Amino acid sequence: MTKATVRRGLSETGDPLLLTPGPLTTSRRVKEVMVHDWGSRDAAFIAINKAVLERLPEIVNAWGTHVTVPMQGSGTFAVEAMLTTFVPASAKCLLLINGAYGLRAKRILDIAGRKSVVLQTPEDTAPDLAEVERTLATDEGVGHVFMVHCETTSGILNPVAEVGAIVAKHGRRFLIDAMSAFGALPLDARKIAFDALAASSNKCIEGVPGLGFVLCREAALAEAKGNATTLVLDLVDQWQALAKTGQYRFTPPIHVIVAFHQALEEFFAEGGQPGRGGRYAENGRILSEGMQALGFRPLLPERLQAPIIYTFHMPRHPKFQFQAFYDQLKERGYVIYPGKLTVADSFRVGCIGRINAEHMRGFLAAVAEILSQMGVESLQPAA
After folding, report:
1. Axis-axis angle for helices 357-374, 322-331 (nearest 10)
2. Which residues make Cβ contacts (< 8 Å) with residue 129, sequence separation at least 6?
3. CB-CB contact of 131 with 159 (8 Å)
4. Are 289 and 307 in contact (CB under 8 A)?
5. For the chain, which domains are there?
6. Calpha distance 235→225 (Å, rounded)
7. What tens digit of pLDDT does each residue of 113-169 get?
């Protein structure tokens, strides 16, 4: 295969394809709507923002029970707002950790002066459900349980429904980091009881970065008044201000919200979660099968793999140099992520964003060409 036969990866606006877990490739129209200006107190913008906040609960069948509280900033702003608003000083939070984002939640609680209990498993291992059960049965001080739905450190799909059932059985409150799962993986608020779920604009809804949001069970949010440890990240205060005035307490990311509104229109036009998730699943199938056919070994077994981002072991061939591999992929229009594991030397390839099966096949052709040019024949993983 020669370089001329490999089709360059290009988005609708001619940019390299971001095979990452977000920020990610967006549609032309999502970008185009940001060329205009709105005032934050303008009626047209207030109507756009209201439409965004009202539609988000539909995605997880939470309409009528949960309200959307937006939070300016990245997804971590939303996670910190969720944890520090819902976890009171008088109780402990059980953290189920198998990656960097669970560890980040622990640091958030530590800095906020909140007590926590940690059940940690390796990055390629799901939480131990029996241990969750034992902890809740024996530690009455635990009031909330936190877990990440899809941990993008590895791409692992965590058992949110099973954990939710255990949490409900013991009468505790469930907090979910659904950052990389919301809109792509099924989650039904009628079947999984949660007090709050955090996500952001730049993941599977395919908007741009700048807005986090938390879907909050309205009754639980009202009970959380006075818990917040900061002014800016107080979800109760933000919720009450929006309900009273329709406006944010502080300057909102207006262009991001308008782009998110457009992204939501495209999301529902694609068929909502089943449609969006189906496209991502097909991207993931093509990627996984193609990379394994080339000799790469995935970190996770199929039963634990979410179709969001795939982690592959780094080859140990002496001619394989990751930085050169990364740079040559970028030259061909494909941007990937380095690994984030402590258990193995690895790299990651995302399946989400405005990308499709043809793009994934183009990526595989580029990988094959680069390996050939490097003179890499054996793809045994790094020791």
Report:
1. 130
2. 159, 162, 163, 166
3. no
4. no
5. 3-19+272-374 (3.90.1150.10), 28-269 (3.40.640.10)
6. 9
7. 999 999 999 999 999 999 999 999 999 999 999 999 999 999 999 999 999 999 999
